[in-house]
Amino acid sequence: MTSDGNLWRHSCREEVETHPLAADASADIVIIGAGFTGCSAALEASQRGASVILLEANTIAHGGSGRNVGLVNAGLWLPPDDVLAQMGEADGSRLIDILGKGPQMVFDRVKTYGIDCEATQSGTLHLAHAPAGMRDLENRFRQGNRHGAPLQLLDAKESRTRTGSAQFHGALLDPRAGTIQPLAYCSGLARASLNLGARVHEKSPVSAIESTAGGWIVHANGHKIRAGGLLLATNAYHEKIAGAQTPHYVTVSYSQFATEPLSPEQIATVLPGQEGCWDTALVMSSIRIDKAGRLIVGAMGDAMGPGAMIHTAWARRKLRQLYPALADVPFRYQWRGRIAMTRDHIPKVVAFGPSAYAVFGYSGRGIAPGTVFGTAAAEALCENRPDAFPVPVRQTYSERFKGVLSAYYEFGAVMTHALRPGPMG
């Protein structure tokens, strides 16, 4: 395998011209982190007439927003009843309803702003990797439909038709969902924000923030920005910022492997409907096709870390078992990203000062929720309405044993990929 790194950087057609912060400035709102949340917030706040400065330590979508699978799913990883158990009936039902509409918000923004991100709203498939996985999908089907989700439960035969693989016991189809080129989507949000007057500065790491009587002072690139409101949207790629409350989450790695474009003959029977897929295994895996016809295989685990050889060998076995005709097709691209996981798998909003919020913890479901929460953050800051967020705002939040749990998840992924030859396990 020759690896050219992140496929999404190679195939991104959205261009955004920015410059590092080079002088002191002021704005109504400063946003730290140019991922789905930060760029969505910048766009919404600019639409509302606020002056916005968006700061990114690296490049737009450098973190998980530019490295993920690109599945635009509704809801969270948790089944609806689990959300209600964690949050209570009122708050849980509200979150389920709002995030159920999340994919449409994404695709509407793609259309409104002409974002060139390979958007395909043909649904996603949650695949049963084993009989137990099928029982899980049946449970999710009942719960989802009870909450108004138009889900369809597919048997093994229909799953084979839709995936081109005989390895699955069934699937759950969500027609609201779809796929995008995630880095291009995020870049398109940033471009649209710029066109509405936002100032976007890449290569502008924030070193410190200060609370003042009139708002906030943000230190970046040796310069100061004065602002009335502040949004910390760094999620799993947060670096220490003096004066800012550090978001607490467990870091989980997710890696992907992509082929060159398949031939028309090869691609005819591989995901003919272009649904993005992920499975029910504890160590989750994913498959999808991009617009050029590349097959992308993903799984939990760090393919750039000590277990890289194990994860890479597993990806080759998985490709061979799912699609024997593609057994000899090489992977051209290989990359990984980080997920911010909270213990209850529900996103968190922390108010760490007057008109200052940190949003984090999408637990692997970042595209639609990031768009929703970023939009809500802009409303909260522009209108002084904390209740605009889809979840109750906290004053503090902490996670115990973060490093230990991160190592545990990676160890589990390594052991699973080393010992289990199953296609989606």
UniProtKB/TrEMBL annotation:
Task: List keywords of the entry alphabetically.
Answer: Oxidoreductase
The residue ranges of the FAD dependent oxidoreductase domain are 28-379
UniProt entry tagged with the keyword Protein transport: no
What Gene Ontology cellular component terms go with this record? cytoplasm
Q: Name one GO molecular function term.
A: oxidoreductase activity
Keyword presence, tRNA-binding: no
A Pfam family matched in the record = DAO
This chain's protein is named: FAD dependent oxidoreductase domain-containing protein
